[in-house]
User: Fold this.
Amino acid sequence: MSLVHRPRRNRKSESMRSLVRENIVTPKDLVAPLFVIEGKGKREEILSMPGYARLSLDLIVEEAKALWALGIPCVSLFPALSDSVKDSKATESTNPDGLYQRTIQSLKEAIPEMLVMTDVALDPYSSDGHDGYVDPKTGEILNDESLDILAKMAVSQAKAGSDIIGPSDMMDGRVGFIRNALDEEGFSQTSIMSYTAKYASHFYGPFREALDSAPKSGDKKTYQMDYSNSEEAEREAYLDQKEGADILMVKPGLPYLDVISRLKRVSHLPIAAYNVSGEYSMIKAASEKGWLDGEKVMVESLTAFKRAGADMVLTYFAKDMAKLLH
Ligand code: PBG
Assistant:
């Protein structure tokens, strides 16, 4: 056969493949989520997330040091709080001595150069388990009424030392509202990574178990996006960009690579992807059963994010991946 084009020539050896490789994952692309609990020396395994645990503040600092040593530049922090501090107003979210604020402070003291990303939404602090206030009469998730507490939460986190504020609540107008509040309080250098296209997804199950933060009634479909849509993600991206977001995020990750790729093309901002808890659990479960090679599937999945156009990936595989790369 006289074939002019033989694409296989560029695949003939690992050296050749590495020469033409378009995308690679490095530890610098990864953000490691961490779950903090009260106590000392406490490590609580999360049943639905094999290998992942809730850690007390002292262990979080140790874990972050290990991640930093592996070249991971950023952690994303979530608090797992007992029901006794939760109420319908999410009062605990702005407590300057709260577990979350103390953890941010300790991380910044221990490893000043490591970035701390924090989550803005009511659910970990709310007895209703929703991301905004719930109207007690109608059950509606109130938009405008929730903006003030979200902004106060963001300012409280910035005061504690947060480098990147991550509004994950999906209320309309919150990015601009939070940007304004941060600037007014003198935090013009605090970044906002907006959960821009956050879908009402069933892949968050293990995370909600980890934080015991599932909604007490109803679902999140009136604020998180309908997973049938991607045009709408562009609209959210347009608004967040206009309101002053620094980074746009797509969540979940693997089933939404098309959305990542779409936002990468229409936006001038860096794109983040959240490889969420359910995606992690599926790979871990199949790997434990011997049905998949967990490590190889992890590398392939994280590379797929880069190929789709993600500049960074929040992933529970961050430590395993960085270890493998070393
Ligand atoms: C809540 C929040 C959720 C996640 C991150 N922030 C869950 C939800 O919206 O119910 C999910 C992350 C994961 O599944 O890994 N504001």
Observations:
- The longest helix spans residues 144-160.
- Residues 179 and 244 are 7 Å apart (CA to CA).
- The two ends are 44 Å apart (CA to CA).
